[in-house]
Structure formats: structure tokens, C-alpha cells
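pasting Gfo/Idh/MocA family oxidoreductase for the record, 339 residues
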Amino acid sequence: MLQVGLVGTGIISREHVRAIAHHPQCTLVGVADVVSERARQAAEQYRRHRACAGKRDEEPRPFASAAEMLGQLPLDVVVVAVPHGLHEEVAIAALRAGAHVFVEKPLAPTRAACDAILEEAAKMGRQVAVGHVMRYFPEIRTAREVVAAGTIGAVVSVVEVRHAEYFVNTRPRWFFDRELAGGGVLMTQGVHSVDKVQFVTGRRVLRVSGRAWYREDLGLEVAGGLWLELDGGVTATIVQSGYRGAPRHEIEVIGTRGRLRAEWGHGVSVTTSDAGYEPVPLHDGGGDPYQAQWDAFVASLLEGREVPVPGTYGRQVVSVIEAFYASSRTGGSWVSIET
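structre below
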């Protein structure tokens, strides 16, 4: 039975609490948050989910800090769900305590911070996993399977679009603090887009050109356009905005024999003729992506395998976003991805 600790109880932590509670080989034993009441609430949430799963574990102990929890509990795994700018500090502390770590995306807001985490993991002989959960959504898994099957021929290009108002009152305020967030829309949501493009095509970004549009009062980008060159000569475009307007979230893959479109809430469809798009059955008929993510992570640990989304991959995604920022500062010049 893996003993799990959670650091941070923001919105995304609810998904992790539920996934841990429904895994038969995990138990959440500690929850740390600077707001003690939120730690207690997360512990109670876990107890309720565990009861629904037919288990009667003790309620996790709440702690006021990660250091306090790590000093008192022997943990196999620590889930890091704090603001981006704190990932490095918390992940390294957990690794030094002897735990594997599961870090919410991005791994860290800079390549240097990612390197510090990975160096500590190597020193301690522990694994680092990154929560790039979009690849576990049925639309994206289905898109990858269709592309891999050659249904639309060889991939030529990809277009990823995501629009959703970003600077809203319901978003935690740390997202609007550059030091804690590390960036704006592209650091928070653009990492998802980069991962989706790479996962669906099975290719890696080699270089980037892009432009960002900023909120000058915050120093954070509210929109951006990225032009990517992937290995094998594939190109991709990512367009994201946090301005007001109807939300849009889709990815289209252009192949030599057709096109694939995956739209959130509208499934996956393919066209290979002028007759239009035809729907494709979703992978596994749907399912909870956060549970699938957690199950795959735990299985890799128990079986002694590399985790499905390792820290080295998370670092590469952050490198793409850093290259985008550098390109934007120089008017859109091409920037190669450092390996």
C-alpha cells in the first residue's frame, strides 16, 4: 500500500484526492496547506470518497506546511499541487524525504528549476512524474490512435486552438502573480497544448517562433500564437487567448489522406473524402482522465517501470514555452529547443 501525501489544496487537488481515494493500493495519509481549514476539508473529502469506494481508512492528517508533513510521515509518494513558482522547493523537499513525486503541470516555470528537480531525483534514486492530464482525455487518446493507425495518412500539420477568458475573479489570485505563476495563459494552458500536439503526433518540437500579447499591468501574457517545427518535417500552430468571448477548444490534424478534428464536448471526427466529417467512437467510451492518469502512474511505480510522463518530458515542454517567450521578445525569431 503506497502512503501518499498531498501538498496544496487548490481546485485541481480535488481531482487528485478523488483519484487516490479510488485506488485500491494507495492511501492518503497527510494533507498540507498554508490554510489549515482547507487541509482539513481536503482530508474530509478524501474520507467521503474512500467510503464511497467501500474503504474505511483513517482520515488523513492535516498539516500547516509541507516541511511539517514530510518531517512527521514516512511517505512513498508526494503530490505537488501548489503554485507553479513553488514546485521546485516542494518537489525537492519531498525527494530528499525519500518520496517519489507527482507534480502538477508545468513541472516548474523555468528550465533551470526543472533541472534542479531532476538532479535531486537522480541523486535520491526517485521518480518525478508530471500531470499532463490532457493525454488521458478520451478525445486526445482517440486522436492519437486514429493518427497512429494511418487513417488520415502521414501527418503534415496540426492546428491547436484554445480560447477561454483567463483573468476572471474565480481564478485564484496567485495566477496573476508573475513570480508564483511563472507566466500567463501559455505557461498555464499552453503547456497542455504543446503536450497534446506532441502526444497526438508522436513527435517532438524542435524549434519555435511566436508572439505574445500582454497585460502590461501584470506583466503576463493574455494571448499568444506559436509556430512550431517538429521532427519529421511536421509543422504545428498553437493559438491561445484569454480574452472574453465564447470558449473554443479543439485540435485538428492534417494528413496526406484526410483530416481529424477533436473538439471538447463534441468528440472526434474524421474526413477522408468530400462527403464531410464522420464521428469516431471515443477511446474506452470515455472515463475519468484523472483516475486514468493516477492509475497509470501508480502501476509504473509498483511494477518498477518509468512513469508514463516523466520529469524529463515535463522539462522539454517547459523548454518549448521558454523558447516561445524568447522568440516573442525578439519579434518572432526562430528559437531552437535546448535538450
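The chain has two domains: 2-133+291-309, 134-287+317-336.
Residues 134-287+317-336 form a domain with the Dihydrodipicolinate Reductase; domain 2 fold (CATH 3.30.360.10).
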